[in-house]
Amino acid sequence: MLKIKSIFTLVLSLFAVAVFAGETPQISQQEFLAALKAPNNNIVLLDVRSKDEYNQGHIAGAINMSHDEIKDNLSQLAQYKNSTVVVHCRSGYRAGIAENILSSNGFSDLRHLTGDMNGWLEAKLPVVNSVTTH
After folding, report:
1. Which residue range forms the structural domain that includes residue 84?
2. Of 25, 55, 56, 87, which has the fewest CB atoms closer than 10 Å, so is most exposed?
3. pLDDT for 14-30, tens place per residue?
4. Residue 133 domain-assigned?
5. Annotation says 126 is catalytic
């Protein structure tokens, strides 16, 4: 019985994340790049992949905080509550989790980067490598 309850809870959680991720407005790669060029833009790019993934290649200027660290480190992100926060991961799942946490904690201007990092790489857009995280 406990096993069935655990499976049901997991399925329900995955469904909730999928539904929420679909509700976060998308921003295309080109819209994102154009918005960055606007004077006085108030955009923050949040890469919620692991540190290793981030260090292997990330979008310039991205802040790295793994999706599973967001809840415990909201105080570090609080300064961005009034910013447009563009969230991405490798393929979208972890970004959906992060968006749900951020939205539940007062971040009202969230965007999901269309295609996430996989799409960015497929479009052959620039990435930088680092040994330290932002």
Report:
1. 2-122
2. 25
3. 554 444 445 899 999 99
4. no
5. no
